[in-house]
Amino acid sequence: MPAPSTLLAPSILSADFTRLEQSIALATTAGADWMHCDIMDGNFVPNITFGPFIVQAIASCTSMIIDTHLMIAHPDRYIEEFIKAGSHQITVHQEACPHLHRTIQFIKSLGAKAGVSVNPGTPLSTLDAILPDLDLVLLMSVNPGFGGQKFIPSSIGKIRQLHEMRLKLNPEMVIAIDGGITEENAQEVVSAGADALIAGTAFFKAANPAQTAAKIRAMTR
Ligand code: DX5
Ligand code: ZN
């Protein structure tokens, strides 16, 4: 399996943006593995966040892996800019990419790892043909657009199903889960097959983020 211990990816969306550098340092010293950057365009999702300029600022503050989640229409137009800004991994949405194979090859040709995300309402069968080409799948356990939402329970079954799919098609592929992750549901998510947990609220709004990070990273399947 890809990871010996659980990977933790705090989502910068829930950080204090008036103290961006300190927020990133909090994640770095807590031993976080990836810095998850949520890019929203007010079109594919009903919210707007930030672009490559901020990703570049974030990347300049840390040596962590910059994991960029593009919740935008026409992601191909912006992929190169986000990689130049310092993204090591780019995840696009299946629902936003009519030429998904081309998009994934494009990300890889620029030297970044390539991921696909699927919304809660999108069946995993839509990933059958592309799975062997992916470095990661980012399963949405909330409808994308906002931090602080409640975990959708049927996501557990989808993680199990995706885990079965990767055993057959791409054993090295990482399964990441995004939305509503808490200290309470993290173990169930890991047991179902997730390797990387995205945590916005659970990390940045925790009374003791370092302790939360340690607990989540210590979870094993
Ligand atoms: C939702 C984003 C998530 C979100 C996670 O559209 O993709 O990454 O910020 O935040 P929490 O952990 O608060 O659900
Ligand atoms: Zn995200």
Question: What can you tell me about this protein's structure?
Answer:
The chain has 221 residues and is an alpha/beta fold. Helices cover 32% and strands 19% of the residues. The protein contains eight helices and eight strands. It has helices at residues 20-29, 52-60, 79-84, 100-109, 155-169, 186-192, 201-204, 209-217; strands spanning 7-10, 34-40, 65-71, 89-93, 113-118, 136-140, 174-178, 196-199. Strands 1-8-7-6-5-4-3-2 form an eight-stranded parallel beta sheet. The termini are close together. The model has no long low-confidence stretch (mean pLDDT 97). Bound molecules: D-xylitol-5-phosphate and zinc ion. D-xylitol-5-phosphate binds next to strand 2, strand 8 and helix 7. The site of zinc ion has 6 residues, from strand 2.
Overview in brief:
Helices cover 32% and strands 19% of the residues. It contains eight helices and eight strands, in the order βαβαβαβαββαβαβαα. The chain has helices at 20-29, 52-60, 79-84, 100-109, 155-169, 186-192, 201-204, 209-217, and strands at 7-10, 34-40, 65-71, 89-93, 113-118, 136-140, 174-178, 196-199.
